[in-house]
From TrEMBL:
The lineage of its organism: Eukaryota, Fungi, Dikarya, Ascomycota, Pezizomycotina. GO terms for biological process: late endosome to vacuole transport via multivesicular body sorting pathway; vesicle budding from membrane. This is Charged multivesicular body protein 7. It comes from Orbilia ellipsospora. Residues 265-372 form a coiled coil. The keyword Coiled coil applies. The keyword Coiled coil applies. GO terms for cellular component: cytoplasmic side of plasma membrane; ESCRT III complex; multivesicular body.
Length: 489
C-alpha cells in the first residue's frame, strides 16, 4: 500500500467491512457478480455505500468547494484517486455502488432533494417495468444484453441515512424540550445550536447546504417543524404542529438577539484579557505609550462590555415576561375549556332544580323502604325480645354457677396449702427433736438389758433429755416473745 495514503483511505481501511481479506473483492470489477453471485454483489455494494456515508459525515470526502459537507456526498474525479491503493489500484466498480444507491434513493441528487414537493417517503404506484428500466439505466445497462457499467456519476448527492440520524438527534433535543419557548428560534440560532446537539468534536459544524437539507427533511419529510421566513418552530411531542404566529417570530428574533449579545460578551471579555496582557507586557518593557494605549482601549472595551451586559439583562427580562405571558394564555385557555366542560356536564345533569328533585324523590323512597322494613320485621322482633330475655336469664344462671364453682375451687386450694404447711412444720419439729436426741451421750452404757428390757439408766437418761429439750423449747419461745414486733414498712 502507499505510504502516503489519504485521510479518507486511512479511515476506510479501519472499517470492519474493509479488512485486508476483503480488499481484493471490493477493489475488483465485481459487476459480473450481479448475475453469477447476487449475494456477493450486494455485499460489496452495501459495504461501499455504508463506508461512503460514514466518511461523508466525518467530512473526509474531497470536495470541489471550500465547505465541508456532512450530509451531502460530493462525487468528483478526485474521489477515485483518494481511494487508490498500490496493491489493488482504484475501486473499479465503485460506480455500481453509487448508482445502486441512487436507484434505491439512499442517495438523492441535491437539487432533486431540495426541489421535491412531496416527502421522500411517499412512493406512488407506478409501472414496475418503468422502475426497473430506470434503475438499469442508472447503472449503465442499455439493453437486455448490455453489461453493467461501473462509471461514476459526478454530482452532489444527499446521503439519506446521515440526514435521518441527524434529524433524530435534533428532534430529541429540541422537539422534546419541556418549554414551548425552546421550540421556537431563528434558522441562525438553530445552526449555532447544532454542534452542541450533535455532540461533535471541536470544529464540527454543518455547512450551509447541510442545514438547508436538514430543515427540508424536518419540515417536509418528517412534519416535525414549520418554517416561515427565518423562523423555525418545532412541534411538541404527541401534539399537532401549529402555525407560526407574529408572537413566535418576535420571540425567535428576541432569542437570536440574546444569542448575539452573549457572543459579543465572550468576544469583549477575550479582548479585555488580551489588552490587559498587552499593557502588562509593555509596562515590563518600559514602553509607556503602548501600555497607556492598551489600558485606554481596555477601559473603553470594559464600558462597551457593561453596556452589552445591561442590554442582555433587559432582553432576558423581556423573554421571561413573554414566557410568563404565554403560560398565562395557556392557563386561561385551559380554564376556559374546563369551564365549558363543566357547563356541558351540568347541563346534561339538568341543573340544580333537577338534582334537588331527584334527591327529594330518592329520600322519599328511602324513607318508604325503611317503613316497609319495620313493618315486615315487627312480628319477628317480638319473638326476638322474648328470646333475648330467656337468653339473659340463662346467662345469669350460668355466670352464678361458674362463680360458685370457682369459689369452691379456691377454698379447696387454700385448705390443701394449709395442711401441707402444717405437715411441713411438724416434720421440721420432729426432725429437730431427733437431731437433738441423737446428740445426747448415752452410748457408754447399754440401753437394753439381756432380757430385752430397757435399762433403768436409759429411761432416766431419756427422761432427762426430754425434760431438757422441753425447757430449751420454752426458752426459745420466750426469746421470740420478748423481741419487738417488726412494724410494717
Amino acid at each position: 500500500m502507499s505510504d502516503g495514503m489519504s485521510e479518507l483511505l486511512s479511515f476506510i481501511l479501519t472499517q470492519e467491512d474493509f479488512r485486508k481479506a476483503r480488499l481484493p473483492s471490493l477493489y475488483s470489477d465485481f459487476t459480473p457478480l450481479k448475475t453469477v453471485n447476487p449475494d456477493g454483489y450486494t455485499a460489496n455494494t452495501t459495504a461501499w455505500k455504508s463506508v461512503l456515508s460514514k466518511a461523508t459525515y466525518n467530512g473526509l470526502i474531497p470536495s470541489s468547494s471550500s465547505s465541508t459537507d456532512r450530509l451531502i456526498l460530493p462525487i468528483t474525479p478526485n474521489l477515485l484517486s483518494s481511494l487508490t491503493i498500490r496493491d489493488y489500484g482504484t475501486p473499479t466498480a465503485l460506480g455500481c455502488a453509487v448508482n445502486d444507491g441512487i436507484a434505491t434513493e439512499e442517495l438523492i441528487p441535491l437539487r432533486t432533494f431540495l426541489s421535491r414537493e412531496g416527502s421522500i417517503y411517499y412512493k406512488p404506484w407506478v409501472d414496475p417495468w418503468k422502475v426497473v428500466s430506470w434503475g438499469l439505466r442508472q447503472v449503465g445497462v442499455g439493453g437486455a444484453t448490455s453489461s453493467v457499467s461501473g462509471k461514476l456519476t459526478n454530482g452532489e448527492f444527499v446521503v439519506v441515512k446521515n440526514v435521518e440520524e441527524t434529524s433524530q438527534k435534533v428532534v430529541r433535543d429540541i422537539g422534546h424540550g419541556s418549554r414551548d419557548i425552546d421550540r421556537i428560534m431563528t434558522l441562525e440560532t438553530l445552526e449555532h445550536e447544532l454542534p452542541r446537539i450533535l455532540q461533535g468534536k471541536d470544529g464540527f459544524r454543518l455547512s450551509e447546504k447541510d442545514v438547508k437539507v436538514l430543515v427540508k427533511h424536518l419540515t417536509r419529510d418528517l412534519g416535525e417543524a414549520k418554517v416561515q421566513g427565518k423562523t423555525i418552530k418545532f412541534k411538541a411531542p404527541e401534539s399537532q404542529l401549529t402555525p407560526i404566529t407574529d408572537s413566535d417570530i418576535t420571540t425567535a428574533q428576541l432569542k437570536h438577539l440574546i444569542l448575539t449579545q452573549n457572543l459579543k460578551i465572550e468576544a469583549l471579555s477575550s479582548k479585555i484579557s488580551a489588552l490587559q496582557a498587552k499593557a502588562k507586557k509593555a509596562a515590563g518593557e518600559n514602553n509607556k505609550i503602548i501600555a497607556l494605549s492598551a489600558l485606554k482601549s481596555k477601559k473603553l472595551t470594559e464600558q462597551h462590555l457593561q453596556g452589552v451586559t445591561d442590554n442582555l439583562a433587559s432582553l432576558e427580562n423581556v423573554l421571561v415576561k413573554i414566557e410568563q405571558a404565554v403560560d398565562n394564555v395557556t392557563l386561561v385557555d385551559t380554564l376556559e375549556q374546563g369551564s365549558k366542560v363543566l357547563a356541558k356536564i351540568n347541563k346534561e345533569s339538568g341543573g340544580i332544580e333537577r338534582v334537588e328533585k331527584v334527591l327529594d324523590e330518592l329520600q322519599e323512597q328511602m324513607d318508604e323502604t325503611d317503613e316497609i322494613t319495620r313493618i315486615v320485621n315487627e312480628p319477628g322482633k317480638i319473638k326476638m325480645d322474648e328470646i333475648e330475655d330467656d337468653v339473659q336469664d340463662e346467662f345469669a344462671a350460668l355466670f352464678k354457677e361458674e362463680a360458685g364453682r370457682q369459689k369452691n375451687s379456691e377454698e379447696e386450694e387454700r385448705r390443701k396449702k394449709e395442711e401441707a404447711e402444717k405437715r411441713r412444720k411438724e416434720e421440721e419439729e420432729a426432725q429437730l427433736l431427733a437431731d437433738r436426741l441423737a446428740g445426747l451421750n448415752v452410748a457408754d452404757k447399754p440401753l437394753v438389758t439381756a432380757d430385752g428390757e430397757i435399762a433403768a439408766h436409759a429411761v432416766e437418761t431419756i427422761d432427762t433429755a426430754v425434760t431438757q429439750e422441753i425447757a430449751n423449747m420454752k426458752e426459745d419461745d420466750k426469746r421470740r416473745d420478748d423481741q419487738p414486733e417488726a412494724l410494717p414498712a
